[in-house]
Amino acid sequence: MFDTILIANRGEIACRVARTARAMGVRVVAVYSDADAAAAHVAAADVAVHIGGSAPADSYLRGDAIIAAAQATGAQAIHPGYGFLSENPDFVDAVEAAGLTFIGPSADAIRKMGLKDAAKALMEEAGVPVVPGYHGSNQDPEHLSGAADTIGYPVLIKAVAGGGGKGMRLVERPQDFMDALESAKGEARTAFGNADVLIEKYIQKPRHIEVQVFGDGTRAVHLFERDCSLQRRHQKVIEEAPAPGMTAEMRAAMGQAAVRAAEAIGYNGAGTVEFIVDGSRGLRPDGFWFMEMNTRLQVEHPVTEAITGVDLVEWQLRVAAGESLPAQQEDLTIDGHSFEARLYAEDVPKGFLPATGTLAHLEFPQGARSDSGVRAGDTISPFYDPMIAKIITHGPTRDVALSRMRAALAGCQVAGTVTNLGFLSALCAHRGFAAGEVDTGLIARDLDTLVQVPAPRPADWAQAAMVALGLGEDLPGDAGFSLWSPLVRSVALRFGDDEQVARVALAGPDAATVHVADAQVAARRVAGAWTFDGLPPVPAIRTGALVTLFRDAGLGFDVIDPLDRAAAAGAGGNLIEAPMPGLVKAVFAKAGQHVSAGDRLAVLEAMKMEHSLLAARDGVVAEVLAEAGAQVEAGAALIRLEDEEDAAA
Ligand code: ADP
Ligand code: ADP
Ligand code: MG
């Protein structure tokens, strides 16, 4: 076994690989970019080497820097994770030329599977069923459109170099073919530097079922299938193993085809053979076709681990170190059912836009496996995939595993960024999905109901107000509460575009009335915990100016700082001043910059709180008078705007 390996990746997969390696007594070297200097995967390693700037091209894609780091730290092997350099055969060649071991398949096997057209031709030869279509070299548009006519509509145009669902177009009618071809080719050229496409029959009610294989360079075994049909725009959202409705006959046929595919290219290590399945007539042994092979450890490998009890990373290390396959086909069995949900920082109502933010609070549920590359306090930066975690559950049956997933999602607590938790929960509550009726169109068909954002109830507003005022748990007695005069305090909160001022009237240590959003909510403290209109409290936390209630996907309320308003309203003039003595935490304005009323120009920390200082009007910054880190007096001028007349001139 290796004594030291380097992991050429980041995030959850780097942490995942490190966990197994260290458990095997193997020393782990991490590499990191500027943005990742304090990242979880660095902390998970024994040694870490800085390899460059935050953009992937400046760090995680720099094969030379990674190989140099391996040599400098005495690593004998490199694990590529997924993405980045994992399927780059030139990198594999370079690793081997440097006398190191690549933990994965040979460069030759990666090249053979790298282009979808060549892979399909090869698989056809090996007797693996492939999706009917045209995967020849003639790229003349007329020829391709003729091929589409022969195949019969609907057809799918696919970039031969494609990945991640890019460069793919579904065409329903012949008259749309040419436009779709042009846009697929354009996207493929930009994303992969290769505009070539193939044409495939579009399978009706498609299901994506893939087979995990593992080879030693000569022989291969399969570790059964995963169903990844829950997709949004050809991207996997929830995966499971085994596939619902799978028959022993079809499983055997698919397993054999996948092993044949792997052995045909002398596959070494973990790989996945992806098939498309016609779900319109049930699962039949003659109803699956090869789509492509992913020559790496896959994102969704944990569901296979859950049902087989195999640690795929351990197998990768052992086989790369020269051991033979750790198990024979007949040793492998399926135990129960497993689901994986991909938790992302993304703004679902805004079209699943990737989000960024600092995870003020992060807690994963009990009773589930959580593979993550971030911790509370870490930042989801714009440089990389915004995945927060993969949540994996296992159970004796599909129903049990799915209800464990529902519970696990309900137990995820994320504050500081929007997430797709609500969407994942809605999916896990979807009737068709629960019944095992999965196909790749499910999400798109029911998108409207799946993306509904829960609106806070008056009880939620009331609880948020109490938490914002620090009245969530502690006795208000110390805060000046007296029996004979009910204490009234107010706080302004914002949920989305909805802004409300909540008034909390305390009527004793265990009772209060909250007036908010045209409602009146009775708060009562029972056994130390507040209830709201009789509803039990939801777990809640205040982090800075954000109150998060962990109900559904998490309800985030901004606490509106009255000082923001004061600053905005008060300083009609040119100066942005410190409203109180404090520490300048950050200055966002630069001289010459155009700002709009309401823009955040600086942050002042005072009285243990952060206060945003906003521009009171549109204008141009004339001068920045204070730097981050400066201690300032009340009334100190921090930023000066140009006179309005000057700016107009
Ligand atoms: P999986 O089938 O494992 O879910 P994905 O398609 O989600 O695979 O991709 C897994 C990882 O590989 C992601 O990080 C994705 O960005 C990366 N990836 C997939 N295809 C390519 C490609 N052609 N080029 C670069 N990265 C890719
Ligand atoms: P990528 O390299 O982007 O992962 P794939 O060839 O694996 O591309 O296809 C991605 C997804 O597109 C599949 O999981 C499936 O949902 C859909 N798809 C691919 N081929 C077909 C087909 N012939 N018919 C229907 N859907 C397909
Ligand atoms: Mg694929």
From TrEMBL:
Which residue numbers delimit the Lipoyl-binding domain?
Answer: 566-642
What is this protein identified as? 3-methylcrotonyl-CoA carboxylase alpha subunit
**Positions of the Biotin carboxylation domain:** 1-448
> A single GO molecular function, which one?
ATP binding
Give any Pfam family that matches: Biotin_carb_N
SMART domains reported for this sequence: Biotin_carb_C
Q: Which cofactor does it need?
A: biotin
Domain of life of the source: Bacteria
Provide the organism lineage as a comma list: Bacteria, Pseudomonadati, Pseudomonadota, Alphaproteobacteria, Rhodobacterales
Domain ATP-grasp, by residue range, is 120-321
* UniProt cross-references to PROSITE patterns, sorted A to Z: ATP_GRASP (PS50975), BC (PS50979), BIOTIN (PS00188), BIOTINYL_LIPOYL (PS50968), CPSASE_2 (PS00867), LISH (PS50896)
